[in-house]
Here is the input.
Amino acid sequence: MTSRLTLAAADALVAAAHQRAQEIGKAVSVAVVDAGGFPICIRRPDGARPLTPDIARAKAYTAAVMQRPGTMLRKWQESQPVFFAQLSQLPGAALPIMATEGSVTIKKDGEIIGGLGIAGGTADEDQKIAEDVLAVLGYELEFAAWGVTGTPDENPGKGA
Here is the structure.
């Protein structure tokens, strides 16, 4: 069965992220994109810095099109910075690839259905907000390592 990320689901993610951010005293922008990296919902609350919606969208885009959370991409980016710089220059690339915290792939029933980007807190705060929201709303947070077949449970020690 093919799942898709609806506007209602994206709105729920944004609302939950803003609520969680408010609990820790942060004004963060939140972006939700579909599996192809196309925006569904981007919101900047009062008090969030002006550039944060663009950063959140690039984070969400990265998580969707690279099909892994930004933190899983970091070692690859560090080992091949030229490759990552060129990814953002490809004709089909809508946004820069950002291998960083607050860039989390949205996965449901084993299928990647989108990306969530949080921007405006510290790197750790952005990541925590994203993970908390996805966990509370029933999305999956486990991903197999690159180049490993099967599910994370079938490859102990090789997942995220």
